[in-house]
Amino acid sequence: MSDQDRKDDLDILDISEEDETSKESSDETSEEKTKDEKTTEEDYDKDTEYEDVCFICRRPESKAGRMFKLPNHISVCSDCMHKTMDTVSQFDYQGLLNSTGNMNNDKKESKRFPNISFVNIADLQGDGGIPNRQKLKRKKHKENADAAFDVKNLPAPHRIKAQLDDYVVGQDYAKKVISVAVYNHYKRVATGTMDDIEIEKSNILLLGPTGCGKTYLVKTLAKLLDVPLAIADATSLTEAGYIGDDIESVISKLLAAADNDVDRAERGIVFIDEIDKIAKKKNTTSRDVSGESVQQGMLKLLEGADVEVPVGANSKNAMVPLTTINTRNILFICGGAFPDLEEIIKQRLSKQTSIGFNAQLKDSMDEEKDILKKVTVEDIKKFGMIPEFVGRIPVVTALKELSEEDLVRVLTEPKNALVKQYTVMFKYEDSDLVFEDDALTAIAERAIEHQTGARGLRSICEKALMDVMYELPEYEGHTRVVIRRSDIEGTTKPVIEQVSAEAMDTE
Question: For the whole prediction, is pTM greater than 0.85?
């Protein structure tokens, strides 16, 4: 074999080797691309805890069905995709494909698609241009949902009351009633139906003056049970279509408190405060959109129904996703001061006992304390609550007005009492804060004068300690502040005493 032939053979080998090498590299590249694509899809599908929301109609996957996945994590449901394709097919779609190169340059071609602008989805930044992108957790299977709430882990009524005693002073009867109602409710949630007998909900109505602990009682209860809580003000609610928050916004707040977990939200607690402000207005000819109409709209929520609520918003609009929540297992607790209810109860009792020699005088009713405990359903109806609303709240309990002794206990006994809070705050400034007994009594007396209940205690303390808290950071070393009765009454100011190390050692 000649040298030339050998050279030609080597060239052929080199070329074939290069071809094989390039083929292998291309194969490896394609495999890597496939792996990358799979990895991306897997990473995207890893987040199966949350539902996809349609970019167009804003419906979640549980309502709209399976989604079409587009770039930038954009999802479109099959209904919207079909509607879009039907709309596009009305125009010269084939013509668009044949003239893609001239679509931007040729004005004649662009006239085929009037009022249509083409957007490159890949150019969208962030979350794909999705406004108010809210992640909605998928619903669990029934077995898993039931296992998440076990009746065996539910504390008994006496344990619930004992835990409430650590935070709420007084109101023993109300705490007992609430503990039993809450225990029965969540036992019903955990067990479902027994022997085909469905147990109805035990919604609660709390009556009592301002500052007696209604809101704080519910907050503590939700924290102890580890369930989501939504607090709403009934004064802001209006009938759908009017200015104000829709009635369904209460459930939206509960969903937000449950971190957009529908299963957890459906076992939560909703506290509607100032419920007495939506009483039926008397002598009105116009539509009562913030009174009787709100009561009518709340009936389905109290009884249990499927409600379509916006996710991450107080009202429904085209830019937020919607989901369905069943309110069957949601515990509703309503609270209100009902200021004129005492007079209604007194009138009823005086009519019953105003005939005969042993009749009670009307003045004796004014001296009677805890008159709200004698409330009946008829009294609440006479106040202005419609019968359908009252009938859906079977548990009614009254909280008494806090006495001077109770307010002193509120200042000192609970785990997060005000005196304990201020003591910790002063510790950060290396100072000891001491309240004399007379000072605590003076604070309680002022709160009773202002008729603010426990709510007014903090404002009174803040006013008395304002100058001290302003001057205290300027002092070096250890200090002591003693609050006297005169400091609370405003005749004197608290004195900051410098304490030596020797005095601290003797103490």
Answer: no
